[in-house]
Amino acid sequence: MRRATPTAAARGFTLIELLVAISVMALLSLVSWRGLESMSRATTQNQQRADAVLTLQATLAQWGADLDAITSLAQTRPIDWDGRVLRLTRRGSDASAPSVLVVAWALKSGSDGVRWRRWQSLPFTTRSEWQQAWNTAASWAQDSGAAAGANVPGGASDVSLVPVNSWQLYYFRENSWVPAGQLPTVAANPNNPSGPVVALPDGVRLVITLPPGDGLSGTLTRDWVRPTVGAPRSS
């Protein structure tokens, strides 16, 4: 009987083949990691942009609501812009409890950087309280060191909104947009001796410049038209 000869032992991988395989695996891992990192960065940027858009939308909605609610009291200023702060006399938002308050918008520096901020007084009922709130709003705009949300004079509120590099205002008067400034004094009206001391503009144009970053950037223009003019309130 013929004896079977043993087969040759199976040959294993050489050192060079192992090194090549390890190098390919390392390259694939690196490519996969960079892909995941790019996806994560894109997701973060999209979330930051979405958050910035929502914040800006809420801010502009509040801006429009303040302008829509401007009210005229006896011998007061319903609106005033001095190149730094916009002050408004507006109705309260609670229809069940009618009230009046002063609102101010300004660009201020704080612990969170340069931001557009909004100040609001407590509701009041007398002209002396209006004058106090009106003066406090001007003082608030001059105080660049106050942190948003901190205690402010009179128990008012101070809210930090969106980062803004600069902002400009224009009034719509005599069928054209002009840089906002001191409004003309209203002529005495014997039929309405308790009217406001200045005339409201027919519209207010807001131009803000947003800083570059991961969220929004560039220049944004927002127009508001007084409802009684017969045009949409804002655009």
TrEMBL record:
Q: Which UniProt keywords apply?
A: Membrane, Transmembrane, Transmembrane helix
What stretches pass through the bilayer?
12-33
Q: What is this protein called?
A: General secretion pathway protein J
- Any keyword Membrane? yes
The protein's matches in Pfam families, at most eight in alphabetical order, are given as: N_methyl
Family annotation (PROSITE patterns)? PROKAR_NTER_METHYL
**Could you name the domain of life of the organism this protein comes from?**
Bacteria
SUPFAM superfamilies per record:
Pili subunits (SSF54523)
The protein's organism comes out as: Variovorax paradoxus
Return the InterPro entries for the record: N_methyl_site, Pilin-like
